[in-house]
Amino acid sequence: MPDGILAEIEGSLRLFRGSAAMVERIRAGVDQMGLTPTLAVAPTARGAWWLASAGQEILILDRAALEMALATLPIAVACDRPDALGLMHNIGITTIGELRSLPREGVARRFGQALLDGLEQALGRVPEPRNFFAPPLRFAAKLELPGEVTHAEGVLFAARRLLVQLEGLLAARQAGVRRFLLILLHRNANPTVLDLGLASPGREVERFMRLLRERLSACKLAKPIEAIRIEAENFVPLHGETVDLFEGSRAESEAWARLVERLQARLGSKAVHGLGLHSEHRPERAWRALAAGERPLRGDESAGVRPLWIIEPPRRLKEKGGAPFDGGPLELLVGPERIESGWWDEGEIARDYFIARAPSAALLWVFRERGTTSGWYLHGMFA
Amino acid sequence: MKTSLADILSQCSVWRGGALASGHGRTVPTGFAALDRELPGGGWPTGALTEILGQREGVGELQLVLPTLVALSAGGRRIVWLAPPHLPYAPALATAGIDLEYLSVVRAPGRRDGLWAAEQVLRGGGCHALLAWFRDIRYVELRRLAVAAEAGHGAFVALFRPEQAAHEASPACLRIAFEPAPEGLSIRILKRRGALIAKPLGIKIERPVHALAGAPFSTPCTRGSVARPCSV
Fold first, then answer.
1. Cβ of B58 and A358 within 8 Å?
2. Share of chain B above pLDDT 90, in %
């Protein structure tokens, strides 16, 4: 089915001096956008949609005319199930009118009640309530700079003016954003886009500015900048205070959120992460890096004794006479703990883990692959 | 060496009126009675630098700070691990009693990034413990961090550094060095507020071998060759 827009125009007909005039205005507007529409007007939304889908540019204002017009349409506009269409084709049904001439019970049984319901809605015998489209909340504003700018300070100065507008819009909507874009427009080059992420939704200019300052200090402005744009969308509700469990917490979590933003702005978004548990027997998968702000699940902590440092990927150990060696022979103290898992995916393991003592007195978590001669690996340290 | 006012103030021997109120001189218990007894204020200093020096890995060095981290995370205090040499293993941390919700890892591969991040964490607030690993860090950089720690929100700051650093001057308020010992760790206090003690302290720490001693599959295998895995 082609893409389309359904518009309720009955309430606006008087303002636009009738449906014909209105249709022409719409057509002119769509033409300006460089698109070629097929426009159909009908008393029901679904009826108009089907007419337009069938390529019929038509203006129908009463139900009787609609019924006649729909009857001539191919059944494909009313039904998108290939099996049902094939079946109808086999019994010689090609138009909606022919379909409607069949007994209703048979149609419902063979092709599903939904098809009948659709027909009733297209004809206006059954109401078809629809939700009106709410345009997404977004912010986009551009500012021409008085002259070409090559230094971050100039950009910051201009950006603040736009961010004040963004804050105003967000405040009016009781909303915040998790990210915004700063787009630097150059004279003869593609724009530079800076994507600025916030650890928690926010709307304060100062917070945006801190982020921006951090980011601009880390990137080189190679080309002169003529104008800047700020864009933000996906507004999220921001009202009241987030409830937290510990005292003095709100200011503290905000301070933390801002700190995370600053760190991420300079070090990269993956440079700051939390640690979570993951229900998995394979040691390398029993944990997960959590994005900042993501809460760890309470996991299964019943695995065996585990080291505080894990070496990823496991480091191959030297061997002497089949025994692991790391600056000296390793003394196997505890084990084996057999871990076999992952046969269902690519990461199958079959290992025997031991706690071993190194000559340095370090306690190491080492394993040997079962059924292979691939040797010993260091996987952790009991630090 | 040129000495600035900040220099002098960051030395712990200078007591400033009103400093107590700003968190200076406060401590958090280490969780080791023998160590707490020897530390001024009865624990790790907060709002100041603590250096933990040692060469060996895997000898229980993280156990030194674990009780403090458990207590802080239980109180909803955030902990940052900055530039750790290996990946902290979540299952082991959870088993040790740390609430993972309050633990964050910051990776800063470059030296400068690491220093910058440490300063941000200390000045930014919202974080009550910073564990940071620095392979090499200069006196002026340490001083900068010391000033940031003091200006910050009274976080416990532990800098893990190699043993050789013991020979360098440092503005840290507390410097300790650890060595593996039969019962756990042997701790030397290299610098603290107040008189020094020469005798090393023995700290008993949990080792997995003890922890496993009672488990059915885990009979410690001490006899015979070191090479063969023990069968149970």
1. yes
2. 51
**Distance separating alpha carbons of residues A309 and B125, to the nearest angstrom:** 27
Q: What is the DSSP string of A363-375?
A: EEEEEEETTS---
Beta strands in A19-117 (DSSP E): 40-41, 58-59
**Do the chains contact at A276 and B58, CB–CB below 8 Å?**
no
Structural tokens at position A141 = 């504003």
Q: Closest partner residue to A361 among B87, B125, B180, by Cβ?
A: B180
d(Cα A19, Cα B73) in Å, to the nearest integer? 68
Taking chain A (383 residues) in runs of 10, the rounded mean pLDDT of each run is 80 87 88 84 94 92 92 91 89 92 88 90 90 77 87 86 87 85 91 87 86 82 89 79 46 85 89 89 87 71 82 90 86 86 75 91 90 84 93
Interface predicted TM-score of the whole assembly (ipTM), two decimals:
0.80
Taking the C-alpha atoms of residue A344 and residue A227, their distance in angstroms, rounded to an integer, is 54
Cα(A371)–Cα(A349) distance, integer angstroms: 11
**pLDDT over 50 (residue B223):** no
Instruction: Report how far residue B71's alpha carbon sits from residue A210's, in angstroms, rounded to the nearest whole number.
Output: 33
A-chain residues near B65 (CB < 8 A): none
Token couple for A227: 């104008």
Q: Which amino acid is at A225?
A: I
Nearest to A228 by CA among A175, A173, A165, A178: A165
For tokens 């958090």, the residue is B28
Burial of B53 from C-beta contacts in 10 A (0-12 / 13-18 / 19+): buried
pLDDT of residue A173: 78
Q: Looking at the complex, report in whole angstroms how far the Cα of residue B151 sits from the nearest Cα belonging to chain A.
A: 15
